[in-house]
Fold these 2 entries.
Entry 1:
Amino acid sequence: MRVLVTGGAGYVGSHTVLALVEAGHTPVIADNFSNSSRGVLERLELVAGVPIECHEAELTDVEATERLFRVEPIDAVIHCAGLKAVGESVSAPLEYYRNNLVSTLTVADVMARHGVRRLVFSSSATVYGASHASPLGEDSWPLESSNPYGQTKVIIERMLTDIAAAHVGWKVALLRYFNPVGAHSSGLIGEDPRGIPNNLMPFIAQVAVGRRDRLTVHGDDYETIDGTGERDYIHVVDLAAGHVAALDHLDAMTTDVRAFNLGTGASTSVLQLVRAYERASGRTVPYTVGPRRDGDLAVAYADPSRARAELGWMATRSIDEMCADSWRWQQNNPSGMSSRLAN
Ligand code: WQD
């Protein structure tokens, strides 16, 4: 299938593009490069071994989005584009609601006009909020996030559910990511956050490579194995494979819309991840313990059984592999995507 991957130059999007090529699909990237680098395209083509079509496009713009569907027929959409920093969403809710909701409505509207009925949506475990205990199951109810970013995912899941119910033949998979980490084994693409990383793994990686002095551990007084927060970290290559499994499953879905947790079902604490990264990199990761971060949960991990039963997909890569692949990417690209490619 010819698959439009919105946000395809981003962290999850770019790994999904590679997984699509490996599965025999033809990915088409649409990205506004607001949180990604144009340099990723050359790297993707190096790994994929084939040219990859890429269009710069602002998906809140109907005409720009229309053009993506006019070039050649699109068979399905994997919608990864969106603003995704939890803390930033609290200080800029208007931008988050506008960008994430309007871009999704625009994509869905243009899909409907062009008779495209297959959609895989990048949702998040943040939709479960703080009111459900782990392991988190897809039927947890109600869904309510503690931050505007997560609320955009809750609202979009509901929008797409209503749209699919009103349009005959639509099939929509809602993929609730847990904590994506790691990088493609080539070391050519990986997580490349702009500015100070919000998330744990890229922060650890930047300390290990010497870009930052030390990690601040956000609290060590939680009711967890060692007092620090526990999360379900999933290798981004496993996550990308989950997108292809969902895409290939859409036609067999017996409902218009189906949510799937993409997680491992295991949890790892902050300090456990620090130690794993030190083993993988051979570097020391200095840290200090600071106060808890507002909105943080003590523990969050998936019940991944539905994706295994219905998509035939499960995460296979270990925490040590996640750290080793992340370190290879970070060591080869100390300045991220702007690092010069080795000849
Ligand atoms: C993990 C753990 C922190 C940074 C967020 C989003 C979620 C998804 C993944 C998009 C927590 C601790 C972190 C640091 C730390 N993104 N930590 N020092 O908050 O579980 O999930 O990213 O979909 O939607 O909510 O991930 O990596 O920020 O935090 O101690 O410098 O690491 O307290 O326990 P989180 P995270």
Entry 2:
Amino acid sequence: MKRIRAGTGAAAGPAAGANGTLGGEADASAVVLNSYTEWEPLREVVVGSLSGGVFPGWQESMAYTVPEAAWRLCREEGGLPLPAAHLKAAEEELDTLADVLEAEGVTVVRPDTVSHQRPFRTPHWASAGGLYAGMPRDALLVVGDIVIEAPMSWRCRYHEADAFRTLIKSWFRRGARWMPAPRPQLTEELYRTPGGAESPAAERWAVTEFEPVFDAADFLRFGEDVVVQRSHVTNEFGIAWVRRALGAEFTVSVVETDDPHAMHIDATFAPLAPGKLLVNPERYVPHRLFEGWDILPAPGPTLPPDWPMYFCSPWVSMNVLSLNPETIVVERQERPLIDALTAWGFRCIPVDFRHVYSFGGSFHCVTLDTVRDGGPAKYLAS
Ligand code: DAV
């Protein structure tokens, strides 16, 4: 089970790095947030929790990304618990992932347990409940020593960062920079009405430019470069906010992807090491930033077509987690992917994760790497 909760153990203080994994030269306990890439050696990570998760209350903008088979469930069961047996199996997979990471020498911390079943409202709208604390990658963006709380556009996710607040406060007290994005209003003006967009390009997306919104999972870190996709949950205003919040130390670049359901970039690109980029062959659009990089098109997912997928596509098969530039956690049944990565020189650690897939993500989505080695080096072409 969850041995390290928020605010205890390594997350709370000088025990951080006490397992010796930080090397010894530096004062390990001083490293609180330091994560500049998706692949440098991983020292500390948040693993989400699906405990108490509920179906998201329906809003029309979800039709752009949620598989059609799940629309009825969200419309009729928003705020009601996710299917119990499947959820229990998924929670066990998350606990196993935490065990595997610890066995690899990574410090694992978990969110607080909060109720996701409570309805809530603002002056403008009401939500039947929340969602879960399963996907910290969506709600929080760590760049260097900064943690940004994302202004997410699904109304049910309005309070999602709460489960991580004990952790965030602990990081802040120990020196991290804490930047909540402007609280979004999420009024009707934010959501596209067909024909109502300000330009043909804007017509493509579920969210307008009414206010800054983004999900953190639309961003990827490459040292001093941060790459982002425009999506049905991330608008230009949100990208501009992140660019200015991060300041001159970082360059935030928008990359085009060919994904009609775009929501989160991490089943489209997975940078695994300097110069090694795993891509979704159905969505990848070449970009000058990746000039000189080896590009590996990911083999297709192995998920049976009748497996329940409530919130995302089976391409979460490539939503892997790098432990270092040679080691990757991959779903055990994604054999073609494991074979391709092994042939590319990686050690793959297989972990069962199909029940977690059903709830919207895989290893990258359910984690938030807070401490990795390395700094803001230059990896991408200018
Ligand atoms: O459906 O490919 C997966 C990432 C969800 N957090 C998709 C998006």
